[in-house]
Amino acid sequence: MNAPSDAEPPPAGLLGQARALLLRTMTFYRDDPRTAGWLRTRLERLSEPLRMAVTGRVKSGKSTLVNALVGTEIAPSDTEERTQVNTVFRYGDEPRITVHTPHGTQQHVSRGKLDPATIRDLQRWRPDEVARLVIETPSPGLQAITLIETPGVASTAVQETGRSALAQILSEADAVLYLTRQPQQTDVQFLHSVHELRVARRAPINTVLALSRADEVAAGDEDALETAERRAARHLEDPKIRSFTQHVIPVAGLCAQGASTLDRQRFEALRALAALDGTRIEDQLLSAERFTKATEPEGVDAGTRQTLLNELGLFGLRRALDLLAQGVGEPTRLRDALLEESRIGVLQEAVHLQFVERQEALRARSVLMAVDMVLRAHPRPGSRQLRGELDRLLANAHEWDELRVLSGLWSGQLRLPHPLRQEAEQVLGARGPHPGVRLGAPPQAQPRELVERAGALARRWRALAADPLFDRAHRQAARTVQRRCERLLLTLTGGG
Ligand SMILES: Nc1nc2c(ncn2[C@@H]2O[C@H](COP(=O)(O)OP(=O)(O)OP(=O)(O)O)[C@@H](O)[C@H]2O)c(=O)[nH]1
Ligand SMILES: [Mg+2]
User: Fold this and answer.
1) Is the CB of 59 under 6 A from ligand 1?
2) Half-sphere exposure of 422 (CA within 13 A, CB side)
3) Where in this chain does the record put each Dynamin N-terminal domain (predicted)?
4) How far apart are CA 86 and CA 161, in angstroms?
5) pLDDT of residue 270
6) Per-residue model confidence (pLDDT) at position 2
7) In which domain, by residue range, is 433 found?
8) Looking at the domain assignment, is residue 35 inside a domain?
9) Residue 76's pLDDT band (boundaries 50, 70, 90)?
10) What is the pLDDT of residues 257-296, one digit of tens each?
11) Ligand 1 lined by 229 (C-beta under 6 Å)
12) Is ligand 1 within 6 A of the CB of residue 51?
């Protein structure tokens, strides 16, 4: 691949400029096939779906959440430590499992079907035997985003190969979904360590923190998720956590997985249980043991009880029976109601808004991280010029600032009065990227009107950026909006 010639128009936007720098870096290292090849894979990824790592504590529910997000059971989950190997779940026209060895070879293990037992076995290989597993399946849930489940932080696999292997796979992902039941120092330290790289520090926009297994909070009480939401809000107040994420979202992955795979047979069993007299069923649901050992009604045997418990958890089971008792009488309605209870939709929406919709900014981040890593690892005469270009791009990466402001507004971390909030979101592109939309102008607005609007908005936000009643974070946010208004003005008057 050649660098773009002088005749090509200058690339637009941060991603275009990052891509051009990647191409120049590839050309610069063309006599070093390994480095150039590594950079080429980064370039090729720009035409593939966004990559999100699903990582976090051992047994934090990563595999279960992958299944819940995809809507089918493709990631084996277990009570024993299981996922030892980085496992990529991506869209493919037909189901296929491919093993990548640490020596760079690939082997197609199975084609045409995904056998959970095979995946389970392969995930137990050691990282020095299997570098990664790639599971392809034609699931719509994977069309916009590829998921990469990593071994748990502090798992045996990670201890053996060192944290750098995990940091490496995280640096290969455009976005990170980090799972922990309760954020502790280890989680915060780990997330800080992966944000140590310069580019990552400049753009802390790629992480969502999930408080997983949230149904277990408060002993699986029916208010478990509300309690977890209050905890999440408190964590978001913590400056250490806020330095790498603006989203802390509780989720009950098991309940979501169980709901999305609920079949008619289990639905009927749930219905039979819900038909029992209120106090008798409440008594059974006091503990998992009571529930599995209970004998009423006759039609629901011990095996079915265990399956229901494994697939929904005690919380999911209690909520399902409550919903049935309240008259939710259709499998699809029960499924939707349980999905809502699980908060999986809130998480999916955050992933969509933060990652999928904003993928250009995230991809630019990944590309610049790759260039930074290469320039650091292989400095040579002449690479200073590339470094200078990287520095300039980083200094002018306003898209990242804008994304942070938008995330802050959405997560409630930044609080602006209603009309200002709406205006800020609009200017920053939340409703669409076109100048007219950003300026809130009617579709038939004349260029002159757009220029006037941009000028007025720029003045308003400049004043807000200097408003002593705002704290520093809000003044900075206002400056980001102001800068975008000025850029719009420049574009509209033919200067940009
Ligand atoms: N109650 C409850 N249990 C869960 C939830 N998610 C997972 N589990 C259970 O926790 C255990 C581990 O779940 P996995 O999804 O395999 O967790 P993991 O993080 O992938 O585990 P490793 O890959 O081995 O680190 C299983 O027994 C799951 O059924 C949840 O949301 N609620
Ligand atoms: Mg797992």
Assistant:
1) yes
2) 4
3) 53-184
4) 12
5) 95
6) 40
7) 414-492
8) no
9) confident
10) 999 999 999 999 999 999 988 788 888 988 889 999 988 8
11) no
12) no
Instruction: Give CA–CA dist 236/250, Å, rounded.
Output: 12
Alpha helices (runs of H) in 58-141, residue ranges in sequence order: 62-70, 116-123
d(C-alpha 447, C-alpha 78), whole Å: 61
Query: Would 275 be classed as within a structural domain?
Result: yes
Q: Is 161 helix (H, G, I), strand (E, B) or coil?
A: helix
Is residue 5 pLDDT above 60, yes or no? no
Confidence of residue 29 (pLDDT cuts 50, 70, 90): very high
DSSP 222-276: TTHHHHHHHHHHHHHT-HHHHTT-S-EEE--HHHHHHHHT--HHHHHHHHHHHTS
Each residue of 397-428: pLDDT tens digit? 888 888 888 888 877 778 899 899 999 999 99
Residues with CB under 5 A from ligand 2 (ion): 62-63, 83
How confident is the model over 184-221, as pLDDT tens digits? 888 888 887 777 777 777 777 788 999 999 999 987 77
Mean pLDDT of 132-143: 92
Ligand 1 atom closest to Cα of residue 76: 16
CA dist., res. 172 & res. 150, Å (int) = 12
Average pLDDT over residues 441-457: 93
Does residue 293 share a domain with residue 216?
no
pLDDT of residue 148: 94
| Pair 192, 279 in one domain | no
Residue 373 lies in a domain: no
Q: Is 254 in the pocket of ligand 1 (CB under 6 A)?
A: yes
Same domain, 55 and 176: yes
Tokens of 370: 């790759």
Indicate whether 382 belongs to any domain.
no
Cα separation, 440 vs 133, in Å, equals: 47
Residue having the nearest C-alpha atom to atom 23 of ligand 1: 83
Spatial neighbors of 250 by CB under 8 A, at least 6 apart, are 210, 211, 214, 217, 225, 228, 229, 231, 232, 343
Is residue 297 reached through a cis peptide bond, with omega within 30 degrees of 0 on the bond before it?
Answer: yes
Indicate the number of domains in the chain.
3
Going by their DSSP bridges, the two strands 132-137 and 96-100 should be labelled as: antiparallel
Distances (CA, A) of 302 to 10, 36, 201, 295, 385: 68, 59, 53, 8, 70
